[in-house]
Write a structure and sequence with these properties.
alpha+beta, seven-stranded antiparallel β-sheet, 21% helix
């Protein structure tokens, strides 16, 4: 089957994903993303990294946006549909958005996502994905791209209990094809220090919190 016609996301896992979001607020799917798509996205991200076309990621937004390497050490590039691989990934997320809206009536309005590249030693301390006082990020996703990730490579995403942010409930290895989905306002998580370059796509389904025709928040 040609790459462009193969499913980018394992749709058979979607009922389990929906049930897990309801029951516990998070879902982890192993080998959920198409392997060749992961390969193409990984190659694209590494090309961006090698050409120094990534931006250092910060925390906060607007006037509060700052670079804090003691909190977050990745570099990013927003997906813009500029390649076939990006379009396939974003179309798969559109399918997931429709599934979530139909099953859970979430009113998800749009999806935004960026490549994330963590150099060796980089991490992202425990946090929530929603913005304080303006929580229109509703559901978060992370797709992992690294081929042949070693068991001692580090870089796992740790998920904590929403009622006890000190209690670890799951870890996700950043191996190609793995996919995590969780409620942005409820699920604390962190990225452990990585021992080798780590590649992923972080994304968020958002509600429309617009005023005067302007969607908020701006990136």
């Amino acid at each position: 089957m040609p790459p462009a016609t193969r499913p980018a996301l394992d749709v058979s896992a979607l009922p389990r994903l929906v049930d897990a979001l309801v029951d516990q607020g998070w879902y982890i799917g192993e080998a959920m993303l198409d392997a060749e798509l992961c390969h193409d996205l990984y190659r694209e991200l590494m090309t961006l990294a090698e050409s120094e076309a990534l931006e250092s990621a910060g925390i906060g937004r607007g006037p509060q946006h700052t670079l804090r390497r003691d909190i977050r050490g990745d570099a990013i590039h927003w997906l813009d549909r500029g390649s076939l691989a990006q379009r396939r990934y974003l179309e798969a997320m559109a399918d997931l958005q429709r599934e979530l809206n139909q099953a859970l009536f979430l009113g998800l309005f749009e999806y935004e996502a960026h490549f994330a590249h963590y150099p060796p030693g980089a991490f992202y301390k425990r946090h929530l994905d929603s913005f304080q006082g303006r929580a229109n990020r509703v559901v978060s996703t992370v797709g992992y791209l690294n081929p042949d990730w070693p068991v001692d490579g580090g870089g796992e995403m740790v998920i904590f209990a929403d009622d006890d942010p000190q209690r670890e409930v799951a870890r996700v290895a950043p191996a190609a094809g793995n996919f995590a989905c969780f409620l942005s306002e409820r699920v604390p998580h962190e990225v452990l220090p990585t021992r080798q370059p780590r590649a992923s796509i972080a994304g968020w389904f958002r509600r429309n919190a617009s005023l005067g025709g302007l969607v908020d928040p701006a990136r």
